[in-house]
Amino acid sequence: MRAVLLPGDRKVVVAERPDPTPGHGEVLIASRASAICRSDMGLYSGDHAVVGGAIAPGTIVPGHEPAGVIVEVGEGVTSLRPGDRVAGYLAIGCGLCEQCHAGYRMLCPRWKCVGFDVDGGDADLIVLPEANALRLPDEVSFPAGALMTDMVGSQYATQSRLGVRGGQRLAVVGLGPMGLAAVLVGRALGAEVIAVDPIEARRETARELGAAHVIGSEGALDTIRDLSSGRGVEVAVDCSGNPHGQNLALDAAALRGSVALVGESSATQISPSDQLIRKLLTVVGGWYFPLGDWEAITRLVVDQELPVERLVSHRFDLTDAAEAFRAFDQRETEKAVFVWDE
């Protein structure tokens, strides 16, 4: 089979590897879509890994947002069979600890990440544990299914946690792929979405996805206050990971409002007294979704006919992996996805 390897220094190798076989409790999946994520860029450059990273560079197949068709099941698999359409859940947990039992396998102290610690979806075939192969409704395309496992799923879990609903205003700061997913999910949950980004093309996409207001970064706080009669928004979600965006989210939130920080970030300076304490603000980290949310995520997408595939800006064949990673790294694409013939 063909498989992408990232040895670092922005090099990409499409190698021939033996076809994997499923072990006990595992399934073999023929890939149909696998998305590139900004977190993959640490592997691509060789500088760092957002998660995982204990494995030698260039030895693990990347791709933590896969979708495809089961072609073989290992011994002990009872809930899936060949021909089932599935998407891949990225967190492999021990299955025994408190966090695993709660469905938060990415919080398991012994967890492994697909595409970072074990081979991911940027290959013709991928092996996953049975629990990590999530059934994909027939109404959902494979590219959409791949995006539902990270961007859409993460936003659903985060916004549901904050109680986003009709009658609320939701500010989304940063309209990269994750931010656009936040717009899509927030609108589906009934909120009036205010979308913020300095790039006009991203703002226009947000408008097409249902944002009620799209504004640039310059003077964004004043505009948000004007749109909310000076009150601020009930919920703000930062997807930029930028200190200015994070502070905008904190400042834009109303008294007793909520903020989710989703964009990855290493350091940010804030003013806790003014921005959190005296506003009685609820601030959470937003990262991935528990297994138990998958059914609700698929229902939301199917019942409301969400145009998840609209989040894909570029499609690539696996043979063109070097160009795909280069273009994504240079921000010439938004969400890029490897696709196989269905």
TrEMBL record:
PROSITE patterns: ADH_ZINC. Keywords: Metal-binding, Oxidoreductase, Zinc. Gene3D superfamilies: Medium-chain alcohol dehydrogenases, catalytic domain (3.90.180.10), NAD(P)-binding Rossmann-like Domain (3.40.50.720). It comes from the Bacteria. GO terms for molecular function: oxidoreductase activity; zinc ion binding. The keyword Metal-binding applies. InterPro entries: ADH-like_C (IPR013149), ADH-like_N (IPR013154), ADH_Zn_CS (IPR002328), ER (IPR020843), GroES-like_sf (IPR011032), NAD(P)-bd_dom_sf (IPR036291), Zn_alcohol_dh (IPR050129). Pfam families: ADH_N, ADH_zinc_N. The keyword Transcription does not apply. Its cofactor is Zn(2+). Residues 8-338 form the Enoyl reductase (ER) domain. Belongs to the zinc-containing alcohol dehydrogenase family. This is Alcohol dehydrogenase catalytic domain-containing protein. It comes from Cellulomonas fimi. The lineage of its organism: Bacteria, Bacillati, Actinomycetota, Actinomycetes, Micrococcales.
